[in-house]
């Protein structure tokens, strides 16, 4: 399964990309305020790359429940120096823009970013055209409503079927605007307008989303549904063990991209889960270890 992002082509049939999260925000739920200034943000990005991140996802706007939109100008003021700094320090780094505003995406793509990660799945009517013109990768994520409203109703008849239908429809809209099929990736939107049960069900039924034919991205890292299941009452960093378990389940169930805060540990988990996935497919282990 090919994922094309401008001049890069990833074969994700038997490979998992680890996407490191870099939130250049004052208020993200896990790392808000830590990387708002360019210098610590660039240092964090380099650290994530050194830990083994295949790509970085740069966001300038929190989308946690009840968060409010950040004006495009302010988002770009936060992002620009960090994008420039990372491009300068690591010209080969693969950069993704966690952006729902076409203007922000367009500016980031002009500076060399490869992917647009749009949690609103093209709510901005200009977004698909911007992505199509750049030939960028595009992550389409399922969310009910907006971050401000999404937790008001988290009941579904069949959450997986509804998510799959939504992603199919948004993919058709992307293609109609000129985005190539090979550039698309899908994301069930763990925690975005979902109960803890809904998020867990989506993880368990990932093969049904993979069957849609595009790489599936999973973003479960440190999210509150994990704490609801484990009973962890502390800060988001306490959710690392559960996040790693979710990463293992996601990879075993066919995820192609993991969006995570804890890159070094996730890289290790991916190796095991991918080896198990291969062994399930082939009937024997390909791991060359005694
Ligand atoms: N989750 C968050 C943000 N962007 N993008 C995709 N594709 N999938 C996700 O699950 C996803 C996402 C929320 O996590 P985080 O960036 O850590 O927090 P915040 O939104 O508070 O900045």
What report would you give on this structure?
This protein has 290 residues and is of the alpha/beta class. The chain has a single domain, classed as Alpha-Beta Barrel (TIM Barrel), CATH 3.20.20.20. Helices cover 41% and strands 15% of the residues. The protein is built from ten helices and ten strands. The protein has an eight-stranded parallel β-sheet with strand order 8-7-6-5-4-3-10-9. A two-stranded antiparallel sheet has the order 1-2. α1 links the parallel β3 (17-23) and β4 (55-59). The longest helix is centred in the C-terminal third of the chain and has 20 residues, at 263-282. The model has no long low-confidence stretch (mean pLDDT 96). Bound molecules: 6-hydroxymethylpterin-diphosphate. 6-hydroxymethylpterin-diphosphate (HH2) binds next to β3 and β7.
Major beta sheet, specifics? 8 strands, parallel
The CATH topology turns out to be TIM Barrel
The overall pLDDT average reads: 96
Name of the level-1 CATH class = Alpha Beta
Strand proportion, as a percent range, falls in 5-15%
Structural class: alpha/beta
Provide the succession of SSEs. EEEHEHEHEHEHEHHEHHEH
Any idea what the CATH architecture is?
A: Alpha-Beta Barrel
Shape label = globular
- Say how many strands there are: 10
Radius of gyration: 18 Å
């Amino acid at each position: 399964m090919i994922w094309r992002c401008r001049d890069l082509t990833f074969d994700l049939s038997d490979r998992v990309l680890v996407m490191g999260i870099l939130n250049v925000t004052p208020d993200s739920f896990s790392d808000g305020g830590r990387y708002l200034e360019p210098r610590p943000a660039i240092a964090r990005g380099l650290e994530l790359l050194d830990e083994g991140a295949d790509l970085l996802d740069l966001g300038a706007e929190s989308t946690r429940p009840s968060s409010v939109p950040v004006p495009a100008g302010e988002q770009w003021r936060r992002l620009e120096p960090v994008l420039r700094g990372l491009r300068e320090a690591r010209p080969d780094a693969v950069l993704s823009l966690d952006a729902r505003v076409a203007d922000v995406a367009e500016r980031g793509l002009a500076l060399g970013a490869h992917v647009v990660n749009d949690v609103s799945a093209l709510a901005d009517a200009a977004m698909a055209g911007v992505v199509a013109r750049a030939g960028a990768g595009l992550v389409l994520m399922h969310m009910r409503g907006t971050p401000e409203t999404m937790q008001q109703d988290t009941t579904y008849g069949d959450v997986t079927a509804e998510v799959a239908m939504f992603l199919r429809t948004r993919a058709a809209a992307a293609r109609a605007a000129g985005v190539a099929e090979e550039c698309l990736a899908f994301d069930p939107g763990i925690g975005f307008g979902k109960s803890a049960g809904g998020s867990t069900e989506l993880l368990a039924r990932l093969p049904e989303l993979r069957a849609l034919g595009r790489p599936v991205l999973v973003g479960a890292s440190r999210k509150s549904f994990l704490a609801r299941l484990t009973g962890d009452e502390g800060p988001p960093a306490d959710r690392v063990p559960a996040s790693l378990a979710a990463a293992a389940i996601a990879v075993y169930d066919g995820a192609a991209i993991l969006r995570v805060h804890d890159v070094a540990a996730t890289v290790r988990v991916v190796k095991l889960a991918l080896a198990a996935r291969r062994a399930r497919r082939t009937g024997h282990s390909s791991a060359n270890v005694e």
